[in-house]
Design brief:
The chain is α/β, with parallel strands linked by helices. The protein is 47% helix and 11% strand. The protein contains 13 helices and eight strands. The protein has helices spanning 22-28, 46-56, 76-88, 100-114, 187-206, 212-234, 239-255, 262-274, 278-296, 302-307, 317-334, 351-358, 373-383; strands spanning 11-14, 34-39, 65-70, 93-98, 135-139, 151-155, 162-166, 174-177. The strands form two sheets. It has a six-stranded parallel sheet with strand order 1-8-5-4-2-3. Strand 4, helix 4 and strand 5 form a beta-alpha-beta unit. Helix 5 packs parallel to helix 7. It is globular, with a radius of gyration of 20 Å. The chain binds fe (ii) ion.
């Protein structure tokens, strides 16, 4: 029996000013002493001031605590320190506030709150993870979609490898998508995170597993990104575009519970070995992977093209793919990112090391066509 499992359990509040709902929702969830987990860079932002004002305006007797040391690429100690802060404040819930790193740390800290002796490298899916403290996830970027994801990526100190902690119990109880919180994101970061969301939608839609619910979400996510991302980059105060990008990012991450593809396998080593932003790395590798896939499965991207608003319903398969890939390339340029890996300091001599890491990454296993280590090296060259 091919048993499929479809699950979309996260309550999500979306809208400009949605953060104002937080105190009421905390009360409804019986939360009295939440710990806010965020990164140091956010403390001085308007987004954080809004959170402070909102929590400060809670009804009397309620209080909250803060842990703000999270690194941009989270490490094991971030998770331990958050759990320590939770215990010393006698907290009863976690509010993860920020980009993907703060959200991932806030999520994972709850594992150590339940099991203080747990070594993250030895996390086991099979253990009983029920009864974790509730998580409220509030993103301040629109890209990773970590707020609706069931995994947390943390670098293990001893091995310097990234551990992917995956469990449905890690899901947030409540997600708040408030465009006011992403208003201050600079254009380059808006573009890079937005193209990460687009990559999630395209890779999950074209991955071969059976998940028509995720496919529908992915296609609508693509439609929203191509309409809203250029506007959000052009005018950071366009709250309609900002709000749509937050929703599209969440949709991308919901869709990729289906799976991802080779673009993400290429992108992960570009971040660890060359320091590229994850979204930028995806954006630069995506067209090369699309060309590689389309050559082997003509017509694979026709429906992606239709979601982009292209008239490719009736044209030959190869033409539908080519026009869709060209559209994605132009979008990357339109939102202000470079086109080639060399523009970001990646060196030809690094291809072997990059491909050696990329083949160990699990994402390419659900690429629409299989890839070898040599293919991955060829793809780095094609994107270079
Ligand atoms: Fe991603």
């Amino acid at each position: 029996m091919n048993l499929a499992s479809f699950s979309f359990p996260t309550t999500t509040l979306s809208g400009t000013g949605a953060l104002a709902e937080l105190p009421t929702r905390l009360t409804r969830l019986g939360i009295r002493r939440p710990l806010v987990v965020t990164d140091g860079g956010l403390i001085a932002t308007d987004a954080f001031r809004k959170l402070q004002q909102t929590l400060g305006a809670s009804e009397q007797g309620k209080t909250w605590f803060l842990h703000h040391g999270v690194h941009p690429n989270p490490i094991e100690s971030d998770v331990h320190e958050s759990a320590d802060a939770f215990r010393s404040g006698a907290c009863d819930a976690v509010i993860a506030f920020g980009g993907g790193s703060a959200l991932d740390v806030g999520k994972a800290a709850r594992l150590l709150i339940k099991c203080p002796d747990l070594k993250l490298a030895e996390f086991r899916y099979e253990d009983d993870w029920s009864g974790l403290p509730p998580l409220i996830a509030i993103p301040t970027t629109a890209g990773t979609g970590s707020e609706v994801g069931r995994s947390s990526v943390v670098t293990i100190t001893t091995t310097q490898r990234k551990a992917v902690l995956f469990h449905p119990e890690l899901l947030a109880k409540l997600v708040i998508l408030d465009a006011e919180l992403t208003r201050g994101l600079p254009p380059k970061l808006t573009a890079a995170t937005g193209l990460d969301a687009l990559t999630h939608c395209i890779e999950s839609f074209t991955s071969p597993n059976f998940h028509p619910l995720c496919d529908g979400i992915a296609l609508e996510g693509i439609h929203i990104v191509v309409e809203a991302l250029p506007r959000a980059v052009r005018d950071g105060n366009d709250l309609d575009a900002r709000g749509k990008m937050l929703v599209a990012a969440a949709m991308g991450a919901i869709a990729f519970q289906k799976d991802l593809g080779a673009t993400h396998s290429l992108a992960h080593p570009l971040s660890t070995l060359c320091g590229l932003h994850h979204g930028t790395a995806n954006a630069l590798c995506l067209p090369a992977v699309m060309k590689f896939n389309a050559q082997r499965k003509p017509g694979l991207y026709r429906r992606v093209g239709i979601a982009c608003g292209l008239d490719v319903v009736a044209c030959p398969a190869a033409e539908a793919d080519a026009r869709t890939i060209s559209f994605v390339e132009k979008l990357t340029v339109e939102v202000g990112l470079g086109q080639r890996l060399r523009d970001y300091g990646v060196k030809e001599e690094q291809f072997d090391a990059l491909a050696a890491q990329a083949i160990l990454d699990g994402c390419h296993q659900t690429n629409p066509v299989p890839v070898t280590q040599d293919d991955l090296k060829t793809l780095y060259r094609a994107a270079w």
